[in-house]
């Protein structure tokens, strides 16, 4: 890693949080705490990996947390009315491509900005979720579902954490080592130029929004399994944490720039920071405040960083 | 009100007759690490519970730590799940939880118990009782139903439409009270002319509750009473009616804090409401938790213990939740023009 790169600074910050946590909280380094640290935010961090690609492509998907909520509620509702859990999981996962396709058609084919489309869908999909489960909470899932969400899978590591590792590597390779990844970056840098050079811009964007919603729907199933119960507000507000993770990772909000390594480091920093603050009994309001400051830093930071390097 | 008095008297005598075994007394000065985890931070009742908990912890001379931490209102359920997980990691001896996550927290509470962290709920239990040692109930949930119905009765003059403005849809306590009230309304013929037209949720957010209250008035032109069994909702509803000049037409009632309600009670917008002492609830919860964590009580039905200045209590089966156990604090006070000013000081 280059000394002066944003990733280098993130790696330093990550080490700093690691050392500070280990010194301030004796429980920090226990295996169970390390697993909890990921588990408590697992849906967000899995979605953040795909969100990175979307933002590098100079788009945004604000609807992910509502797709997550809708998928979780579809699963909860179907189990509640007596549908077998495997079928309910498939139906919940299917929410992803359907929602993604709606987003993609409106953005890539009709040409409405993704900010507008996904903001509308943030409200729309959430509305459907709330209509589905009304004001109830739905639980009593089969034991194997909650075991998958809560217990170790292959050793003490839960299934969702394995998935995160697989997706982190897979999406890293996709972004940095494939033609598709290069197209994502080129389109993100300048969609007009990309179009004139013969790239199928609409197809790339469609793929990305399908991926984002599919990941969000998977997140919804993981959420339901982890907590063993869902309600209409499942995942509300997750999109802001997700976007924070991506931006702090050095991904440019204007597109064209960003690395998977940066996003993964940023995820680790935020999770460690939250965990450290929790273990040292810092209360919710201050935790939210600190994450808010991080977002400001992450948006201003890379810009100032560039100027300093050039200046 | 006299009927209520008799009912409370009955409950009190039942409780005292149940005290047969020698009451267990706390051995002060032991190290118990305690966490008081409210639904969220920033509203008066939870701060009052904190005051009571600190008072008890001081009396007990616990040499362990005491933390009062909570999530933000917007992040309540996820935040509580996170904080209970963290408390388990920290090997806290006991977490005192006012649950706002419904059964979503049950799995984490079970993990806490398995790791040796006791979970004592207060104010709002875990609906299924899973993962919970026991619940310190402020009042008998069934009797709240009667009190709420009686307050609607006196404010409507015995007939008319009313609606409920509750907290979050998953708040176990509010849901249990509303169910209890529906049961009372259905079973007792004297309430036959009262009509519950709707139940809406303001999620214990002032602005949302305010708008939901106005929404009710728009939707039901004949509405006479808004019953808000939440301290946030009742203030917001009373303010909404006052701001819109509707206090003559629509009265507000429910569960409120005298300090926050005094002006609305005096100007007639909310002529009658009820509540218990959150200071006492925090105090009793802390005594119960200390005794449980030190092994002085096991948390079994029938055990009797002494909770400092509040006297003796007995663990009993929770009539509202199958398989769950509770310690019943009770009783509660109905506030009106005559007593609200004194209580708000």
Automatic annotation (TrEMBL), chain A:
It is a multi-pass membrane protein. It comes from the Bacteria. Pfam families: BPD_transp_2. One of its GO terms (cellular component) is plasma membrane. Its main location: membrane. The chain crosses the membrane at residues 34-55, 62-81, 87-108, 115-133, 153-175, 207-225, 245-273, 285-305. It is found in: Cell membrane. GO terms for molecular function: transmembrane transporter activity. Keywords: Cell inner membrane, Cell membrane, Membrane, Transmembrane, Transmembrane helix, Transport. PANTHER family: ABC TRANSPORTER PERMEASE PROTEIN YPHD-RELATED-RELATED (PTHR32196), AUTOINDUCER 2 IMPORT SYSTEM PERMEASE PROTEIN LSRD (PTHR32196:SF71). Part of the ABC transporter complex LsrABCD involved in autoinducer 2 (AI-2) import. Probably responsible for the translocation of the substrate across the membrane. This is Autoinducer 2 import system permease protein LsrD. It comes from Stagnihabitans tardus.
UniProtKB/TrEMBL annotation, chain B:
Its main location: periplasm. SUPFAM superfamilies: Periplasmic binding protein-like I. It is found in: Periplasm. One of its GO terms (molecular function) is carbohydrate binding. InterPro entries: Bact_Solute-Bind_Prot2 (IPR050555), Peripla_BP_I (IPR028082), SBP_2_dom (IPR025997). Residues 1-21 form the signal peptide. Keywords: Signal. Residues 38-295 form the Periplasmic binding protein domain. One of its GO terms (cellular component) is outer membrane-bounded periplasmic space. Gene3D superfamilies: 3.40.50.2300. It comes from the Bacteria. The keyword Signal applies. Belongs to the bacterial solute-binding protein 2 family. This is Substrate-binding domain-containing protein. The lineage of its organism: Bacteria, Pseudomonadati, Pseudomonadota, Alphaproteobacteria, Rhodobacterales.
């Amino acid at each position: 890693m280059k000394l002066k790169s944003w990733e280098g600074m993130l790696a330093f910050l990550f080490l700093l949080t690691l050392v500070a946590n280990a010194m301030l909280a004796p429980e920090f380094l226990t295996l169970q705490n390390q697993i909890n640290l990921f588990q408590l935010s697992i849906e967000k961090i899995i979605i953040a990996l795909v969100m990175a690609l979307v933002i590098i492509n100079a788009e945004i998907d604000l609807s992910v947390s509502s797709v997550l909520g809708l998928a979780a509620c579809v699963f909860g509702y179907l189990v509640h009315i007596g549908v077998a859990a495997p079928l309910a999981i498939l139906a919940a996962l299917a929410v992803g491509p359907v929602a993604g396709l709606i987003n993609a058609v409106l953005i890539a084919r009709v040409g409405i900005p993704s900010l507008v489309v996904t903001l509308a869908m943030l409200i729309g999909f959430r509305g459907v979720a709330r209509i589905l489960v009304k004001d109830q909470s739905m639980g009593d899932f089969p034991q194997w579902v909650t075991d998958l969400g809560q217990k170790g899978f292959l050793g003490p590591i839960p299934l969702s954490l394995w998935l995160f590792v697989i997706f982190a590597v897979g999406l890293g390779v996709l972004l940095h080592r494939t033609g598709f990844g290069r197209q994502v970056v080129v389109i993100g840098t300048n969609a007009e130029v990309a179009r004139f050079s013969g790239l199928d811009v609409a197809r790339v964007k469609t793929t990305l929004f399908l991926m984002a919603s599919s990941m969000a729907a998977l997140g919804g199933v993981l959420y339901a399994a982890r907590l063993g119960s869902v309600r209409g507000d499942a995942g509300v507000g997750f999109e802001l944490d997700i976007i924070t993770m991506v931006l702090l990772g050095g991904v440019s909000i204007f597109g064209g720039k960003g690395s998977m390594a940066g996003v993964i480091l940023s995820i680790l920093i935020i999770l460690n920071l939250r965990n450290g603050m929790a273990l040292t009994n810092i209360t919710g309001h201050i935790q939210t405040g600190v994450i808010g400051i991080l977002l400001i830093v992450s948006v201003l930071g890379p810009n100032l960083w560039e100027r300093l390097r050039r200046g | 009100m006299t009927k209520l008095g008799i009912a409370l008297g009955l409950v009190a005598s039942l409780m005292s007759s149940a005290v047969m075994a020698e009451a267990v007394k706390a051995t002060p000065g032991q190290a118990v690490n305690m966490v008081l985890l409210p639904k969220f931070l920033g509203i008066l009742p939870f701060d009052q519970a904190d005051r009571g908990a600190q008072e008890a912890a001081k009396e007990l001379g616990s040499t362990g730590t005491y933390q009062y931490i909570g999530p933000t209102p917007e992040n309540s359920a996820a935040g509580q799940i996170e904080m209970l997980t963290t408390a388990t990691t920290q090997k806290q001896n006991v977490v005192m939880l006012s649950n706002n996550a419904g059964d979503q927290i049950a799995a984490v509470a079970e993990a806490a118990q398995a790791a040796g962290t006791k979970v004592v709920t207060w104010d709002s239990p875990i609906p299924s009782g899973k993962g919970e040692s026991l619940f310190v109930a402020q009042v008998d949930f069934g009797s709240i139903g009667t009190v709420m119905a009686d307050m609607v009765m006196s404010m409507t003059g015995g007939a008319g439409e009313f609606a409920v403005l509750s907290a979050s849809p998953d708040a176990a306590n509010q849901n249990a009270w509303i169910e209890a009230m529906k049961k009372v309304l259905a079973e007792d013929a004297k309430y036959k002319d009262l009509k519950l037209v709707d139940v809406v949720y303001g999620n214990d957010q002032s602005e949302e509750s305010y708008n939901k209250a106005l929404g009710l008035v728009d939707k039901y032109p004949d509405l006479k009473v808004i019953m808000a069994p939440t301290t946030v909702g009742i203030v917001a509803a009373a303010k909404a009616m006052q701001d819109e000049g509707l206090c003559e037409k629509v009265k507000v009632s429910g569960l409120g804090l005298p300090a926050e309600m005094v002006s609305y009670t005096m100007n007639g917008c909310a002529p009658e409401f009820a509540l218990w002492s959150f200071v006492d609830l925090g105090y009793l919860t802390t005594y119960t938790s200390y005794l449980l964590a030190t092994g002085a009580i096991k948390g079994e039905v029938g055990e009797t213990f002494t909770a400092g200045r509040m006297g003796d209590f007995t663990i009993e089966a929770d009539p509202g939740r199958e398989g769950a156990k509770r310690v019943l604090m009770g009783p509660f006070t109905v506030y009106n023009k005559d007593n609200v000013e004194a209580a708000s000081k």
